[in-house]
Amino acid sequence: MRRETTCCFTGHRPNKLSWGSNEGDPRCIALKERLRESLKVAYDDGYRHFLCGMALGCDLYFCEAVLDLRDRRQGVTVEAAVPCEEQAARWRERDRARYASLLERCDYETLVQHQYTPGCMQRRDRYMVDRSQRIIAAYDGRTAGGTLYTLTYAMRQGLETVILDL
Q1: Can you name the residues that pair with 51 across neighbouring β-strands?
Q2: 137 CA to centre of own chain
Q3: DSSP string over 97-129
Q4: Which domain, by its residues, includes 138?
Q5: pTM across the whole model
Q6: CB of 51 within 8 A of CB of 61?
Q7: Number of compact structural domains in the chain
Q8: Any idea what the CATH number is for the domain that residue 57 is in?
Q9: Mind listing the pLDDT tens digit for each residue in 72-111?
Q10: In contact, 136 and 38? CB cutoff 8 Å
């Protein structure tokens, strides 16, 4: 995939979202709509390949939105960047089933490393940023955490940045 047509994503997990895991909350519904709109803009700007880290929460919302875009627009591909084989091993059964279903629908799956290590999530994030020209971030302004790390790294690498405020 060409970097100039690749867009990646970063965003918070449910424990850092004001609505938690309640996807029926109006704030979550609004975020999902803003994600869809930002993907339409990215598509119109020439982006065709989308990288997703497949974490719970915003990552899975992004993956679902890109898969929906792929159903409606030509040339869209989705790549799951999986940090380690056991990423979803400790999740609730419902979340593991959702993850497996989304992973199966992705065009590509990249396993960043086999075993979990303390730095594997950051390695996954760098993998996505290093292959992208644009990043879309669902970000609430926190001064610590994985979303901030990825967003800061992306900005240092000169990526076009789209921030969806939470």
Answers
A1: 8, 79
A2: 8
A3: HHHHHHHHHSSEEEES-SS--TTHHHHHHHHHH
A4: 3-165
A5: 0.96
A6: no
A7: 1
A8: 3.40.50.450
A9: 999 999 999 999 999 999 999 999 999 999 999 999 999 9
A10: yes
